Amino acid sequence: GPRIEVRKGDVNGTELFNGLGGIAFPTTAPGTESALQTVTIRNIGTADLTSVAVSKLGTGNPSDFVLDTTGTASTVAVDGSTTFTVKFAPGALSAGPRTASIQISSNDDTDGTFVITLTGKDQRFDDRENTASAFGENKRLFHGASSGSVTLEIPCMPTTSSCLPWRTTREKWP
C-alpha cells in the first residue's frame, strides 16, 4: 500500500517522524519573516498516496507560522514526491517561544495523520533573556546614545492576565 515519508528540505533532507521532533526556526524579529523551509512528502509505498492534505492545527500559535501549499499534489505516485513550504513570522505583539503544528493527512494506513511540530522564538524574547536587569523578569532594552533621546523598552510588562509591551522615550536622561 501507500507509505508516507516526510523530510525537511528535499528528498535527501533530514527525515521527520510523526509526532516526534519537528522544525525549529531561527530567532526572528517580530513583524519580519524567517527564510522559507521546504518540506517534502514522498511516497515510499507500493500504491498511490492519495487524499494528501496539509493544514495548520489550531493549537499553540498558528498565526505566527505561514504555510504555503501552492502546488502541493493531492496524489503522490509510488516513488514520487510533492512539497510545501512554511516560514516563521512572529506578529508584532508576539512574545516568547512560539509553537504550532502542521498536519498531513493521507491514505497511509499507518501514518494517515502525520503531525510536524513547528517552533521559533521572537527576537524580543531572545533579547529579554540575554539582557541584564535589576527588575527580575522585566528585562530592559535601551536604544539611543548617551546624548539626545533614549528609549526604554520593556517587551513584556506582566499584568494579572497577560503580557503587554511597554515603551517610553526621554529627551534627557538623568
Strand content: 35-45%
End-to-end distance: 73 Å
Report helical residue fraction.
under 10%
Count every helix, treating DSSP H or I runs of 4 or more residues as helices: 1
User: Order of strands across the biggest sheet?
Assistant: 2-1-4-7-6
The low-confidence parts are: 126-150, 157-162
> Pairing-aware structural class of the strands and helices?
mainly beta
Radius of gyration: 21 Å
- The shape, in one word, is elongated
Task: List its salient traits.
174 residues; mainly beta; five-stranded antiparallel beta sheet; four-stranded mixed beta sheet; 1 helix; 12 strands; elongated
3D structure, described in words:
This protein has 174 residues and is mainly beta. The protein is 5% helix and 42% strand. β1 and β2 (14-16) form a beta hairpin. The protein is elongated and about 50 Å long.
Task: Describe the structure concisely for a colleague.
The protein is mainly beta and 174 residues long.
How is the topology of this model organized?
Layout: E1 4-8, E2 14-16, E3 22-24, E4 37-43, E5 53-56, E6 65-68, E7 81-88, E8 97-105, E9 113-121, H1 123-130, E10 141-144, E11 150-158, E12 163-170
Parallel strand pairs: 3-9
Antiparallel strand pairs: 1-2, 1-4, 4-7, 5-8, 6-7, 8-9, 10-11, 11-12
